[in-house]
């Protein structure tokens, strides 16, 4: 079973401005979970389309109830592939993003299409789709529900981040975004502390279930991805055509 989600977003900026902001959107106050970004491959096709692949490293804090089933290294970070095609002739930008770590536990695939809004040509419309699945027996439904809820929250932050970067590009960064960010961080900290207290109380009254998943080991046998190493660049570059053309 796969959870499906679709929505349409609207940015009150031109398509050209949004395309520039897309490459400049990290860092921003709403993207502290994004740790690194590396361009693995980039090329211009004969049809004058810009084709890119990036490797992103993000924090991946699992909920408290899930952490007890996971090795520590699996519960903290995630590696994300982001493919994109910018078509200046048709004024579209299409992106496909999916996780390559912890995919057996939960897979999240997102497809976005950025195009000129038909009702206002100075605005940009984002058509977003996502597919969330899990093959973890006995917990797949709970994991999918968690993944869907987190994805919806992430979409809201992504749009706010876009608006922040676009405003900054135009020299008009709203100060209230920083206040919102501080309030949100305080709320998240309070929630994390509450969950920690519940977790400690639960551990004091019952034994931890003896069920541990085997950690995923990336290609090459290393549990750490050397982002700038030659082997990973060759790996993604050699498989680039398969991913970007077959999956879009």
UniProtKB/TrEMBL annotation:
InterPro entries: PRELI/MSF1_dom, Slowmo/Ups. Residues 2-174 form the PRELI/MSF1 domain. It holds the Pfam family PRELI. GO terms for cellular component: mitochondrial intermembrane space. This is PRELI domain containing 1a. It comes from Oncorhynchus mykiss (Rainbow trout).
């Amino acid at each position: 079973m796969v959870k499906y989600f679709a929505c349409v977003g609207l940015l009150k900026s031109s398509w050209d401005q949004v395309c520039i902001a897309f490459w400049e959107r990290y860092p921003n106050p709403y993207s502290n979970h994004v740790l690194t970004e590396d361009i693995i491959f980039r090329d211009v096709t004969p049809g004058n389309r810009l084709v890119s692949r990036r490797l992103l490293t993000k924090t991946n804090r699992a909920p408290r109830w899930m952490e007890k089933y996971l090795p520590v290294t699996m519960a903290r970070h995630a590696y994300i592939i982001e493919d994109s095609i910018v078509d200046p002739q048709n004024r579209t930008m299409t992106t496909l993003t999916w996780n390559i770590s912890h995919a057996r536990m939960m897979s999240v695939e997102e497809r976005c299409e950025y195009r000129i809004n038909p009702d206002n040509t100075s605005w940009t419309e984002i058509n977003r789709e996502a597919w969330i699945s899990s093959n973890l027996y006995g917990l797949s439904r709970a994991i999918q529900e968690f993944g869907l809820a987190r994805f919806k929250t992430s979409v809201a932050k992504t749009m706010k981040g876009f608006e922040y970067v676009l405003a900054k590009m135009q020299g008009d960064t709203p100060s209230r975004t920083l206040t919102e960010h501080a309030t949100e961080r305080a709320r998240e900290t309070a929630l994390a502390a509450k969950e920690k207290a519940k977790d400690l109380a639960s551990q004091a009254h019952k034994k931890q279930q003896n069920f541990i998943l085997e950690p995923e080991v990336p290609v090459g046998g290393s549990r750490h991805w050397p982002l700038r190493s030659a082997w990973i660049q060759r790996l993604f570059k050699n498989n680039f055509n398969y991913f970007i053309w077959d999956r879009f």
